[in-house]
Amino acid sequence: LAGWLAGVSSENAPFELHLSDCAITTDGYVDLVKALEENEAFPVDDPKRPGRGKLPLYVRLENNYIDEAAMKQSVDDGVAMKMRKSDHIKYSDTVKVRLLVRENGTFQQNKGDPPAPEDVPDPRPYREKGKGKGRGSSKGASRGSP
Predict the structure, then answer these.
(1) Residue 96's pLDDT is what?
(2) pLDDT digits (tens, 9 = 90+) for 66-108
(3) 104-110 CB contacts, 8 Å cutoff, 24+ apart
(4) pLDDT tier at 131, thresholds 50, 70, 90
């Protein structure tokens, strides 16, 4: 992934990455940040509001195995910024990535080493939006009625 990010251009650069629960380690995180830092395609122009400024890449990394000190260091170095879902969008010509944090400002990382691939539980079942528990196409019909 870091190799791909290092090679994207402003024409095909992603606007967001959802990498939560992927067993990413500190080394993997450092590689991702380095790829973003060294690629001049980041930050990109805001696709929804052109002319507003450059928009750092939105990245979700919760529940990985990244040392929070490494994440804090990328913020301190000006490569990344913390962002809460409730925050207004912050534009920057220099910051490369917006890291989603909990409302209390933590990065929500697992401690220790990631599990071996054979020990990883099966993924949760995929549900289409609006088709969750108790939802469906019955449109108010009671259970058991035709």
Answers:
(1) 97
(2) 999 999 999 999 999 999 999 988 999 999 999 999 999 999 9
(3) 106/68, 107/61, 107/62, 107/66, 107/68, 107/71, 108/62, 108/63, 109/61, 109/62, 109/63, 109/64, 109/65, 109/66, 109/67, 109/68, 109/71, 110/63, 110/64, 110/65
(4) low
